[in-house]
Design the sequence.
């Protein structure tokens, strides 16, 4: 069966510090991978998606970047965090093609102080 | 631009009651629609995926219907239980952009014992 992991679960970072959130998927190959952010009082917003290694599409201009160094690894990064980067970050995967059911990880709660 | 709306934003019912959650979307050109459950501070759990060619899907006490032409979906929960208390999110999948999901704001359900 497939599983999706995210870490860390919780993170508190000062403004201006770097960020690295990791997501890995097990039990499948060549998945589509997604990063979403859920800010307080707002819905889920797609940040990045990837259809393959090294292929990243950005949905909104922001202070964040994403990378996919391996088939089942997706990383969300920032060089300098802003207060507005606080939120709940969710990684998701779907089987190749992207039109299949999406499955979400447990999320990372990021607080920028 | 696709927009997804969920009504009501919050709902409180006594245990045992049958209930309906509503989801509407502005553009009928969707590939499928997915219903999720989110417990506080947790990731999303996929409940049902209904393809654009389908009218309904059932899983246990849950039944989701889809009327693509009118831009509506409902999630019916039979014989509600306190353990059903959570936020329920619907999301539509559009054809391009890697299978991007567009989410509603969710309905927060509370089932009282």
Sequence:
């Amino acid at each position: 069966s497939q599983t999706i992991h995210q870490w860390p679960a919780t993170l508190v970072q000062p403004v201006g510090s770097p960020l690295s959130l990791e997501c890995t998927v097990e039990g499948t190959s060549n998945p589509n991978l997604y990063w979403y952010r859920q800010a307080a009082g707002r819905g889920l917003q797609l940040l990045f998606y990837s259809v393959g290694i090294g292929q990243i599409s950005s949905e909104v201009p922001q202070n964040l970047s994403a990378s996919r160094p391996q088939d089942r690894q997706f990383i969300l990064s920032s060089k300098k965090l802003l207060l507005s980067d606080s939120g709940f970050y969710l990684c998701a995967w779907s089987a190749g093609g992207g039109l299949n059911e999406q499955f979400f990880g447990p999320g990372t709660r990021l607080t920028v102080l | 631009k696709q927009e997804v709306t969920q009504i009501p934003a919050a709902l409180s019912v006594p245990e045992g009651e049958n209930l309906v959650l509503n989801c509407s979307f502005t553009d009928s050109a969707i590939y499928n629609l997915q219903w999720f459950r989110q417990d506080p501070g947790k990731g999303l759990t996929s409940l049902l995926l209904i393809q654009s060619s389908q009218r309904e899907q059932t899983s246990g006490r849950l039944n989701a219907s889809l009327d693509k032409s009118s831009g509506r979906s409902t999630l019916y929960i039979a014989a509600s239980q306190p353990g059903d208390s959570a936020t329920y999110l619907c999301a539509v999948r559009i054809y391009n952009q890697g299978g991007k999901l567009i989410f509603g704001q969710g309905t927060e359900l509370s089932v009282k014992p």
